[in-house]
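can u do me a favor
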């Protein structure tokens, strides 16, 4: 009986195998000999057709696949994006294919703004954009020298329903004789498309022009060509801008609310899904997400059952109070991908929680947003509260601190947004000296670190700690001489001898800005360090801050010819500077104040309990500030200094404080610093000039106007040597001479 079962089993298996071989043979023959009219011929190389692809059971639930470039199979998202019909031509443009580098390499990175055409109105926001360019060091009025061109036609608002919309822009742009199909042009845009779909079409063919665009999607963003900028309001300041609201690094860094949002709820149309679902997460305690339907003319026609309740809850909370007392701020998409909430959250030190799938975040090419924001997913809204609650307090504090740095470095004004855009493009053009991620994402940021100075981070005073380095242990003294050498007892010669005796002095440079000829070599005292005399060509005040190649040390000791300092004072000041290489360290201190009666900034030389400036008549700072003073500051401010022969020290303090966001450091000195009263016939008699003080008052306000705010910071700190004036033996003190009168 068992043998019979075995025979039946073998017979059944053999029958099945024969049937499979027969059916397979029929299919193979059919594949080799397709019927007449079939589209499928033999595969190249005689390869047989692979195993058939059966219909996908999930196909009805998946988004429809667009055909590939050759009409078959699945394609990558990038291929779909490039093959699909674009919102504008030139969607495949990159710097290598749609930008002419020749003019940039010939004349440097210069930007030309088209002159405004008669009868063309420009909105205030776009006027601020153009003013920022024209006031920058990149601007040129000569199109023949330009590397980049910017339209004077207002392209910021391309919503056809907006009163700022410019009609017939297509023909106006095409009529520009330098347009050249948009090549080497940059177009700024904040709003594009209109109700109901809000596409990203700017309404005219931009050709090969680059876009600096807000609310741009990753699908339409052209990497390494376009620049994503933030959406900013018409009230956004042109220059300066308010500081961030993080005043104290409180530990733990938690606030009253964990997560907040207050804004419109769209009942229908694009952008409505996410905001309509926020009520699921709102708990009315530490997660407060408020929406209102009460906007637009016909909101009541579309109101739903939740509108009245949402509107009532919406009115109970003050938005500013919520913003300043929240740890995280939800930034959901609106009609467009970008939102004003983004910049508001950054300024308030409220960590943005992004809910805008597909948004190319502002300046994403250089900014690491993972250090300052939480990138959420609209489809996982319900997981947001548990996700942010799991973030450690140390991480929260780091995120909040980074929001403040990014806000003040790149977003607090229209000028900074525009300059960041231009700097990104410049880095693309000159890749061999482009700034790296550390520069862009660490203080002081990419706008103040000029790559033309050096490509090595160790040459800047801000990265010693990151690199584990220290500045060089010597300094170069630069003495500014403006009076003729008529006596061997003049203060400049005594100063030269005292400085040369310093154990840290590498060399002394005398900048001869006097009208008289250079003294003979034997007139200068013999010293143990080299003395280099440079005759100033222009004989102007700003020449003392030129980046001379002769300066080979990191530190510069800047001195006026009438300064009275001992060797001990020089040594101590340099020792202090080595611990604060990014700041000005020195002796003569001054201060600023706000004059309420005159409604302007004032300058005072009175000895008080605080100061905000250390004059460069006796100060040490990093030599990079010579380069920054020369190449970053506008010619208008330097020309003002040169014409007045005054205020160059104030301008240097403005610059360093603006970069570091820190005050200078005053150190102890043996004697009260005095400006020597020179003869009235001498150029150095400026200290005795009654107009000298008034000029410095005027300079303060002119400088503050250009910076857009007052960068000077008051300080009450003075650094003294250890054991300074302690009741111990003088022999135990290293800088004992400082105490002697």
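np, heres the sequence
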């Amino acid at each position: 009986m068992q043998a019979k079962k075995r025979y039946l089993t073998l017979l059944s298996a053999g029958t099945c195998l024969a049937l499979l071989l027969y059916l397979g043979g029929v299919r193979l023959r059919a594949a080799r000999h397709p019927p007449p009219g079939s589209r499928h011929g033999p595969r190249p190389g005689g390869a047989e057709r692979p195993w058939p692809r059966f219909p996908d059971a999930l196909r009805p639930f998946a988004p429809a696949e667009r055909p590939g470039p050759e009409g078959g199979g699945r394609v990558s998202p990038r291929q779909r994006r490039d093959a699909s019909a674009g919102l504008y031509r030139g969607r495949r443009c990159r710097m290598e294919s749609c930008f002419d580098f020749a003019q940039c390499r010939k004349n440097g990175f210069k930007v030309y703004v088209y002159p405004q055409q008669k009868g063309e109105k420009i909105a205030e926001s776009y006027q601020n954009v153009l003013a920022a360019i024209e006031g920058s060091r990149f601007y040129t009025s000569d199109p023949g020298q330009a590397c980049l061109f910017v339209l004077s036609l207002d392209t910021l608002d391309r919503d056809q329903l907006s009163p700022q919309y410019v009609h017939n822009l297509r023909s106006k742009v095409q009529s520009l004789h330098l347009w050249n199909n948009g090549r080497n042009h940059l177009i700024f845009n904040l709003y594009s498309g209109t109700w109901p779909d809000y596409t990203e079409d700017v309404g005219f063919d931009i050709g090969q022009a680059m876009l600096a665009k807000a609310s741009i999607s990753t699908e339409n963003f052209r990497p390494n060509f376009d620049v994503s900028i933030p959406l900013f309001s018409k009230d956004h300041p042109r220059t300066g801008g308010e500081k961030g609201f993080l005043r104290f690094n409180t530990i733990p860094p938690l606030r009253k609310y964990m997560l907040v949002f207050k804004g419109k709820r769209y009942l229908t149309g694009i952008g409505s899904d996410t905001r309509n679902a926020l009520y699921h997460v709102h708990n009315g305690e530490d997660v407060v997400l408020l929406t209102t339907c009460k906007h637009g003319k016909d909101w009541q026609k579309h109101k739903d059952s939740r509108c009245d309740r949402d509107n009532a809850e919406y009115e109970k909370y003050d938005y500013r109070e919520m913003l300043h007392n929240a740890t995280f701020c939800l930034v959901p998409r609106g009609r467009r991908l970008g939102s004003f909430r983004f910049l508001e959250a950054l300024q308030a030190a409220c960590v943005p929680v992004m809910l805008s799938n597909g948004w190319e975040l502002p300046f994403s090419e250089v900014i690491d947003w993972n250090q300052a924001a939480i990138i959420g997913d609209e489809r996982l809204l319900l997981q947001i509260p548990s996700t942010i609650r799991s973030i450690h307090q140390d991480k929260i504090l780091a995120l909040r601190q980074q929001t403040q740095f990014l806000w003040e470095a790149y977003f607090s004004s229209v000028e900074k947004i525009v300059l960041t855009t231009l700097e990104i493009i410049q880095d693309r053009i000159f890749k061999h000296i482009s700034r790296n991620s550390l520069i862009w994402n660490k203080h002081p940021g990419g706008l103040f670190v000029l790559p033309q100075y050096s490509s090595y981070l160790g040459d800047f005073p801000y990265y010693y700690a990151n690199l584990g380095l220290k500045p060089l242990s010597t300094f170069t003294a630069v003495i500014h001489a403006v009076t003729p050498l008529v006596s061997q007892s003049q203060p400049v010669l005594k100063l030269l001898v005292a400085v040369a005796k310093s154990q840290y002095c590498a060399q002394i440079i005398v900048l001869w800005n006097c009208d008289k000829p250079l003294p003979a070599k034997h007139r200068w005292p013999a010293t143990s360090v080299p003395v280099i005399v440079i005759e100033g060509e222009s004989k102007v005040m700003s020449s003392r801050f030129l980046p001379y190649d002769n300066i080979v040390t990191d530190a510069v000791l800047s001195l006026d010819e009438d300064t009275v300092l001992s060797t001990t004072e020089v040594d101590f000041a340099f020792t202090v500077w080595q611990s604060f290489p990014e700041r000005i360290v020195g002796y003569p201190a001054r201060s600023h104040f706000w004059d309420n009666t005159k409604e302007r900034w004032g300058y005072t030389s009175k000895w008080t309990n605080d100061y905000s400036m250390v004059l460069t008549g006796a100060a040490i700072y990093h030599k990079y500030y010579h380069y920054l003073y020369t190449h970053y500051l506008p010619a208008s401010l330097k020309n003002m200094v040169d014409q007045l022969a005054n205020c160059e020290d104030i301008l240097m303090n403005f610059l360093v404080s603006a970069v570091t966001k820190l005050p200078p450091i005053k150190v102890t000195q043996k004697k009260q610093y005095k400006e020597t009263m020179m003869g009235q016939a001498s150029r150095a008699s400026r200290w005795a000039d009654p107009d000298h003080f008034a000029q410095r008052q005027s300079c303060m306000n002119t400088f503050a106007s250009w910076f857009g705010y007052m960068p000077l910071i008051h300080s009450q700190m003075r650094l003294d040597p250890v054991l300074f004036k302690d009741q111990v033996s003088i022999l135990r003190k290293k800088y004992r001479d400082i105490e002697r009168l």
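Residues 264 and 684 are 64 Å apart (CA to CA). hope that helps!!
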